[in-house]
Amino acid sequence: MKKRKVGIPRALLYYYYFPFWLKLFSELNLEPVISDSTSRDLLNKGVKKSLSEICVPIKVMIGHVLNLDQKDVDYIFMPRFRSLKKDVVLCPKFLGLPDMIRHSLPGLKTEVIADQIDSKSDDIAQFSNHQKLAETFSITKREMKSALKKATDFWQRYRDLLFKGYLIDDFAGIEELEILEKVITKFENDPKPPQSRDQNLEAPVNEEVVDIAVIGYVYNIFDQYINMDIINKLKEMGVRVHSFSMVAEETIEKELSNLRKPMFWEFTNKLYGAAEHYLKNDGIDGVIHLTAFGCGPDSMLGQILEVDAKEYEKTFMTLRIDEQTGESHIITRIEAFIDLMRLKKENN
Amino acid sequence: MNNLYLGVDIGSVSINIVAIDEENELVFKLYTRNSGNPIELVKEGLAKLREEIELENYKISGVGVTGSGRQLIAYVLGADTVKNEITAHARASTYYHPEAGTIFEIGGQDSKLIIVEDGIAVDFAMNTVCAAGTGSFLDHQAERLGVPIEEFGGLALEADRDVRIAGRCTVFAESDMISKQQYGFTKPEIINGLSEALVRNYMNNLVRNRVLEGEYIFQGGVAANIGIKAAFEEEIGAEVIVPEHHDVMGAIGIAMLAKRDVKRSGQESSFRGFDLTEQEFETTSFECEDCANNCEVIKVIADSKVIAVTGDRCGKWTASLIGDSAANANVEGSSEKEEKTAAKSSKKQDEDLNKNSEELEANLYKVDLEKEKQVMKELEELEKSDENKKEDNSLV
User: Chain B 5-64, CB below 8 Å of chain A: which residues?
Assistant: First the structure.
């Protein structure tokens, strides 16, 4: 029998969970189809069909769903992430995402599978989170559970590499499970450290290497189109790039417990914990908060970080991205930011 | 033969060219309005430089370009250093004013705040998407009120009464000004209100909760406006210094940076020479249709020879200039660069670990019946507690 095709939008938490989904679908004998990388055309289509005041990551998501709708897939897989921790939810836009898609795209041909994800941790491999998927393809509970187990084990290997200092960017372009497996195995056995830990990194002529933590949601910092490829721009300028996904869960928890009242949103809390860790860390020269224009949760996070950066005397900058951001303004800002840190180092 | 370093600042409203010598003394200074053709203006500027100084005594040893239009002009000139205007401004003002603590810089298109400690810039802020409170807005309003921009600031000081004008947004500011005019406020009062609004806006958007310390330096094209300077002094309650060369500080700074870079690398300047004033430059653009990004690719042509290509996100057109063979290799990988490298690395590792990986895989996914059973049991238990959890959650 021909494998049925399930489309996965390359947007939002795709960057966090894609190894899990690739493995899961392969175990279930389904063919995952990933939407194209974000491009001008894809974003324009998304913007046209979105509410005008919604944030750009959601507009990107809508663009990706439209892209999949034209790819002749049997279903579109887009879970409703509700919670990954007790008493903490995700941003309301995640909670309402499937409804928003239904409302914004009444002409969508492809059926959407929208399981609700309610988990106690980042591990989302519970059967209850995949009931609709199982029903749609008449998968038995037993089969599903065994596939989920394998998927989560595979995802855990990916996560361990992230904790070791690899960037999601090092994997995110890969769509084939076989290639991903090989890359993961390779990195696991690689004696060479990842870029963020590389002490022998070479900066452009006569300049010093600096360490910068880029604090932002996975879908903002790893979507190369929407952020003007900031990660690679930083790398080219001789920067070791750090991100929240490298910080151990315990460290994040510990930092969070210092907050009198944690925020309501899962990934905002994660960013907070990681950012605090980096602000206190002497090995980090500066922190960039990369945020999408109009992001509600970040309006709180950004303020807290601004105040704390001053307290820890860490060089700090907020970069805002939106649908139409000229590349030159991003370059001007990151260049000036890096210059600040290099001057500081030179004078010490 | 003395060394001379050129600094060029291509702003949205003005184009500035300076030349400094080994001791950072200003040998040449030119401030021109950007009428829209930066290449021609730079050529004219260089021609003027050639007329004014005796070139036999000097050698151009370094060229730096800054400002929002820096990229294109850097290709035209063959610049050694291309850097953002924040670093350039900070460099120049900390040189002239080592005691500086706060630098206000307001240019044509954007405004900046630079915080300095012990002669080093430690923090900066730049206006976001909106152009309220920048030079071009003032230009526009001066034109609307029929006041030459040079007299604009002086008029503000003649105001008798205070008028409050909304400074948050240029559209609102303009409608506010019109209605206040209709109430009978005089031009000086309106202009004074506008200056105050501009400074208020600057404080709200850029300074925010930063603590400002002296000396206070005010530079950029707008610093020529004594009305704005007065409004700043009123707002912070201290004297504000406008440097002598406030209008070309960016150009001076980038010239100093070019000098540093050339010295560090020990290489000859890549300046294309004064002959470029006689060359014909042309820029053409086309929309690349090789992927869904449809980048606008810009070509810079000097005497019918392409000297630079820019604007492509993937870099394949930029690379096409370097050499045909290199270009061919790049064209293939253009839009899916990272995928290609991933595939490449996996291929490489294929060779290294071919046997190993198969073994590894086999081991990893070997089904151990005993273990499987136990895992399933564990999962089931988790499941149960999860289901209980779900009920709880529904009440949340």
Answer: none
Residues 6+ apart with CB under 8 A from B222: B106, B107, B134, B135, B138, B228
Q: Give, in order, the Cα–Cα distances in Å from B170 to each of A81, A285, B109, B133.
A: 41, 37, 13, 8
Fold of A193-347: Rossmann fold (3.40.50)
Residue B292: give its domain's CATH number: 2.20.25
Is residue B107 over pLDDT 90? no
B-chain residue closest to A309, CA distance: B123
Nearest CA in chain A to B382: A126
pLDDT tens for B65-100 read 999 889 889 999 999 999 999 999 999 999 999 999
* Upstream peptide bond of B215 is cis (omega within 30 degrees of 0): yes
Q: Is any Cβ of chain B less than 8 angstroms from the Cβ of A345? A: no
User: Helix B170-182 and helix B135-145: axis angle, to 10°?
Assistant: 30
First-last CA distance in chain A: 68
Fold of A5-185: Rossmann fold (3.40.50)
**B349: in domain:** no
Alpha carbons B76 and B308: distance in angstroms, whole number? 8
Does residue B185 sit in the same domain as residue B128?
A: yes
Cβ–Cβ gap B121/A343 under 8 Å: yes
Query: B59 vs chain A: nearest CA distance in angstroms?
Result: 24
Query: How would you classify the pairing of strands B81-82 and B102-106?
Result: unpaired
Class of residue B160 by CB neighbours under 10 A (exposed 0-12, middle 13-18, buried 19+): exposed
CB pairs under 8 A between A and B: 129
Inter-chain CB proximity B379 and A37 less than 8 Å? no
Burial class (CB in 10 A: 0-12, 13-18, 19+), B130: middle
Question: What range does the domain containing B298 cover?
Answer: 281-333
Chain B, 259 to 288: residues with Cβ < 8 Å from chain A are 261, 264-265
Does B228 share its domain with B145? yes
CB contact set of B275 (below 8 Å; sequence gap of 6+): none
Write out pLDDT tens, residues A289-306.
999 998 999 999 999 999
Q: Tell how many helices (H) and how many strands (E) occur in chain B.
A: 13, 13
Residue B32 belongs to a domain: yes
Same domain, B49 and B67: yes
Of B186, B217, B242, the residue that ends a domain is B242
Q: What are phi and psi of B242, to 5 degrees?
A: -105, 110
Does A126 contact chain B (CB < 8 Å)?
yes
- In this structure, the answer to whether residues B222 and B181 fall within a common structural domain is yes
Q: Which tens digits make up the pLDDT trace of A83-129?
A: 999 989 999 999 999 999 999 999 999 999 999 999 999 999 999 99
The mean predicted confidence, pLDDT, of chain A is 94
Q: What is the pTM of this model?
A: 0.82
B84/A332 Cβ within 8 A: yes
Residues 306-345 of B with CB under 8 A from A: 313, 335-339, 341-343, 345
Chain B, window 145-184: residues with a beta carbon less than 8 angstroms from a chain A beta carbon: none
Domain shared by B229 and B116, yes or no: yes
Asked if A281 reaches chain B (Cβ–Cβ under 8 Å), the answer is no
Same domain membership, residue B134 and residue B148: yes
Number of domains in chain B: 4
Residue B18 lies in a domain: yes
Residues B156 and B216 in one domain: yes
B313 and B391 co-located in one domain: no
Domain boundaries, chain A: 5-185, 193-347
Residue for token digits 């509600």? A296
User: Tell me: the pLDDT tens digits for A198-246?
Assistant: 998 888 877 889 999 999 999 999 999 999 999 999 999 999 999 999 9
Q: Which residues contact A31 (CB under 8 A, 6 or more apart)?
A: A3, A4, A5, A6, A25
Is the predicted pLDDT of residue B160 greater than 50, yes or no?
Answer: yes
